[in-house]
Specification:
Elements lengths: L9 H16 L9 H8 L3 H17 L1 H11 L2 H25 L7 H12 L5 H12 L2 H15 L1 H17 L1 H22 L4 H7 L4 H10 L10 H9 L2 H32 L3 H30 L1 H22 L4 H29 L4 H13 L1 H16 L3 H4 L2 H21 L10
Helix pairs in contact: 1-5, 1-7, 1-8, 1-10, 3-6, 3-14, 3-18, 3-19, 4-5, 4-7, 4-13, 4-18, 5-6, 5-7, 5-10, 7-8, 7-18, 8-15, 8-17, 9-10, 9-15, 11-12, 13-18, 14-15, 14-17, 14-18, 14-19, 14-21, 15-16, 15-17, 16-17, 16-21
Length: 436
Amino acid sequence: MKDFEVKGSPQIGLIMATFGFFIGFAAVSLYGPVAKNLKEILGLSGFLLGLLIAAPNLTGSLLRIPFAAWVDKVGGKIPLATLLTLSVIGMAGLSTLLYLYYPDLEPWMYWLILFFGFLSGCGIATFSVGIAQTAYWFPESKQGFALGVYAGVGNLAPGIFGMILPFALKEIGLTTSYILWFGFLLVGTVIYIIFAKDAPYFQLIKAGVPREEAIKKAKELGQELIPTGSLIESLKNSARHIETWALVALYFVSFGGFLALTGWFIVFWVQSYDMEVRHAGLLMAFGFSLLASVIRIFGGWISDKIGGELVSIIAFFMVLVGAVVIMTGGNTNFSISLAGEILMGAGMGISNGAVFKLVPKYVPHATGGAAGWVGGLGAFGGFVVPPILGLFVETHGILGYSKGFIVYVMLSMTAIFISAVLWRAYGKEINKPIEE
């Protein structure tokens, strides 16, 4: 065992974790671009439409909890590869259904489409797995930037797919578009399995190196974070920290809100302004999803400098203002609505980077478990919010698309309050882990 050589590097670890997250996270945009088609064919209500758009986010959020904690036991490669494989199965089922029956779908097939959405959403859960995997590769002083790059690049997937899919639908049709998506996911999963490497500690443990010796060797190779327990212990350990639940609430607003609006904004533009789905996809991508993804890198970087708590306060205020602006624009002022979308995208992106900078700071000895709670329950907002927005549409008609943003006004105000409490308590401790 003394001759065992650790493979990979922090750079390779970051690249492959980001790649795995990217190909799995694209499922956020699974049904948004085709929502109008499915709504008309299946005769869906506003609530059922919102539920369909949100479907991938249910499994994509809840599975983050056990799978992220699993990282503390076996490293990131096996959990992430498992999630991608489940997503491949979901996309295979959806592609087959569309190939056999589209456009002659029967109303009962809605539930089958919903099920395949749940299964495809397993790929979204790769986020918290990759977060823990990346955190184990990098020292704490560089985690903010590394995690910002990881999440920022990975988060580009929904925007890119939400932008490309509407054009593909027009040029090659819905069925062929989803079959190609399935092929992309399948090939990407194989590439990840071949090239991904776990952080040094996990490689040494798998090679049979005794724990104490593995810890010593891993630290010599630059790995600062070392897991301290099993999957259940990691979840229990992180759950004991009140800060973990504060971060869950913040992430529910920032990332859960991001997931919800990535699918919903396409519907918003199509229904509110009678826009072509291709143009709506471009507006969602450039005005919200891609913007939030890229600026997340800045959010992680600036959090390294001035602290994630202060950055969160500023970012959630931007979300608040953006939501108010969209409500003000209603369904008649395109420029005002677009400005609101951009503000919300920037605010959510920055706050996403800030919140996950705080995870290893607050829970350094159970980062995987904490990432599971925060990433899982926080991302649950992506499933909860769209059906609520759909209820506003049912109640207020076309005006409900703008009135529904009162939900984000309330959520962002709550997030600002929580961030202020954390800033008052821990704001001066920028890079120093909180004692157990």
